[in-house]
């Protein structure tokens, strides 16, 4: 009997139950920062976000169950995570409770294989997409029916707050809880993805490394120490939310953009008001802020709006007709040695040049290699169930499939970079010389 056949016998195909889903990222235009209840992961204030098109940035996950699995295992971007995060465990437990047949899943184990199409944990809302995707997969596998609108979002929220907004497309509010019911903190769709199709987002990846202060830790320190945070929660957010939702529904970019920028600035002011302060923006972020303000000033209108989450990467919202011009500006002021690469599903003329008016009037020093790459996308839809072809698990073994592993080979078992290689060569030369000298001495 071949090994392959043995594996199939111990885990026959029909014993696997699985679901594969994709989920989008979302970018808050009125930020969530601060928890009312850490355990329930409810927010101090309501927030609102734009869901980005999952064709450009998404998380994809397969959850598989089989009686042959002895434990729950989790792979992210090609690497197995041996200590499954408590929040992942919490989401699984909560989903089990609302399964159509909870007894069936009580003692079940799962293999969860997940990937992001963009840098993980670099302030690009990868946890939002990841947890929304996990919830969508379990909802499918467990045949869950929501007991109230937004029920699933109350579980996604417990994975990561911002994840509850990634279940829906378009423009989404995460409602803070009211005094009586904690589970009344859920997400609601304000407008679907077809409402403002011209709305686009240009994501400037300034840094794709993991951030120094996680959102979870950062917001707790802000809650404990920032008086500005309290002022924002009590006096600012509600009015801003109403105004931005109205602007979104009216497709009033100038108001939408102004509020988006002001809220991003206030969030980062709170980070500075936190003790000790948190710095998420860097010099490149600040130059992008200057560039957007100058662009708007010269254009005589708010045509672009930046926002920054817990990292230095900028998201610039604009409408479709200005996308190429803004990309040209970014290329002009943040050139890369081998050209600034652009990942997008939009049909763009990537060779547009900036107008002579902009060339003459924008006053900004050129920052070479300041931006690593751009993602250009538009507003998009929520979580989606994917077909069998998209499954990330090998249905013979119940383990991550070859295509998935190959896709992540370069990142999970990274070959030594140039610096490591240089250090190793110099090290080897030094050791070699010492051995050579000591052998000559001994002779
Ligand atoms: C700055 O949702 O990552 O992106 O609930 O602790 O997981 P946890 O925090 P998380 O915080 C996101 C903060 C933000 C603003 C936002 O998305 O609203």
Structure in words:
The chain is α+β, with helices and mostly antiparallel strands. Helices cover about 40% and strands about 20% of the residues. It is built from 14 helices and 17 strands. The strands form four sheets. Strands 8-7-9-6-1-17 form a six-stranded mixed sheet. Helix 2 (about 85-95) packs parallel to helix 4, helix 4 (about 125-140) crosses helix 5 (about 150-160) and helix 7 packs antiparallel against helix 8 (about 255-275). It starts with a helix and ends with a helix. Residues about 1-15 and about 415-425 have low confidence and may be disordered. It binds ligand DP6. Ligand DP6 binds near residues 28, 33, 47, 127 and 309. Ligand DP6 binds near residues 28, 31, 215, 309 and 310.
List keywords for this structure.
five-stranded mixed beta sheet; globular; disordered N terminus; 19% strand; 443 residues; alpha+beta
Which shape, going by the Cα principal axes? globular
Alpha-carbon distance between the two ends: 61 Å
Radius of gyration: 24 Å
What is the residue-mean pLDDT, rounded to a whole number? 89
Q: Can you list the strand order of the major beta sheet? A: 8-7-9-6-1-17
Task: Name the helicity range.
Answer: 25-40%
Structural class: alpha+beta
User: pLDDT under 50 segments (min length 5)?
Assistant: 1-13, 413-426
Can you count the beta strands?
17
Question: What small molecules are bound in this structure?
Answer: ligand DP6
Number of helices: 14
Largest sheet: 6 strands, mixed
State the assembly state of the protein chains: single chain
The percent range for strand residues is 15-25%
